[in-house]
Amino acid sequence: MFARHPMTVLPFLKDNGSLTGACTEKLGNGTVQTVPSTGCRWTWQITHNEHLASWYHQWLDGTSPITWTLKLILTITIALVLRRLTHKLITKVTVRMAEGTMSERLREKTRTIFDGSPVLVSERRRQRAETMGSVLRSISSMIILGAAALTVLGYLGLDLTPFLASASIIGVAVAFGAQNLVKDFLTGMFMLLEDQYGVGDVIDVGGAKGTVEAVTLRTTRLRDVNGVVWYVPNGEIKRVGNESQNWARVVLDVPVEYDVDLDKVRTILTETASALAAEPPWDEIILEDPTVWGVQALSGEAIVVRVVCKTAPGKQADTARELRERVKKAFDSAGVAVATFKEDTSAA
Questions:
Q1: Which among 185, 228, 181, 230 has a CA at the least distance from the CA of 205?
Q2: Which of 68, 189, 293, 295 lies at a C-alpha separation of 20 to 30 Å from 44?
Q3: Are 189 and 135 a contacting pair, CB within 8 Å?
Q4: Alpha-carbon gap, residue 177 to 301, rounded angstroms
Q5: Rounded CA gap, 292 and 306, in Å?
Q6: Residue 34: helix, strand or coil by DSSP?
Q7: Distance CA 2, CA 19 (A)
Q8: Where are the beta strands (DSSP E) in the chain?
Q9: How far is the C-alpha of 300 from the C-alpha of 20, rounded, in Å?
Q10: Structural contact between residues 294 and 223, judged by C-beta atoms closer than 8 angstroms
Q11: What's the whole-model pTM score?
Q12: pLDDT tens track for 105-147
């Protein structure tokens, strides 16, 4: 039996009941002696009224419908607030990661024509941030709302052990069966965060080379020069060569006859390339003065002279074609013959 409190705060409510009768569970086979809750004990000590204490025990104690409803509302509210705060944090972090750590003032100061307009650069960052933010927000929502659902099921008195065991087994099975999918997903996330390439870039992924048309978290779609569309899983990309970031370079190897005057050839190449760099629209495409590096290869049949120039990204092919045409015309005017060179002239 539980001791009565000697003092009644509201004596006019006092009746002949007992704390045991008010704050214990009653079953068909008798009364089960349990320790009264703090709230029920206080209600009894204030009123000494068994009916009021019993009402509190029935409706406001831990297992009562009102208490369960309040717990349910509180759990859902906390989950929604936590979900909202997490979404805001993810959005802030992904936007900052997409923009990089360089200050905007320094970025504008160091930006050149080949970086693209500020509007295009900002739009690309925004798209990348939205993609990453959407994925991370979905994952966080699943985790938070899933935890809230399990908490509510616990309030209902359901045994979650079999459910959690089954979920663990299913998770392991899915992990083994979807390893490549997870690999593609994680690789795509890092590629987007690091801005390795984007839509419109010309890239070489080893087995395929072309212009990127779409980038998702699972695949990269690109179209080669012949119009063939390639779908490459992100997890299968071991290396990426991006020809559209920052700047590109034209490397033109010109084979001439063995007995030609090299100083004359150097002068012709320098003047031709410099004239190209000074004419519009090439003056905006060629970023630095062209340079004749000199003899690249030597054999009994020919001499290969290399000329290079730095261009805007993606413009090296157009520039190389124009430069070849002008060099051919300049050689014809100067009486310099282009030789047939059979030896490997790949870059050193």
A1: 230
A2: 68
A3: yes
A4: 60
A5: 6
A6: coil
A7: 7
A8: 25-27, 30-32, 202-204, 209-215, 219-223, 229-233, 241-242, 248-257, 291-298, 302-311
A9: 114
A10: no
A11: 0.52
A12: 444 444 444 444 444 455 556 666 666 777 778 788 888 888 8
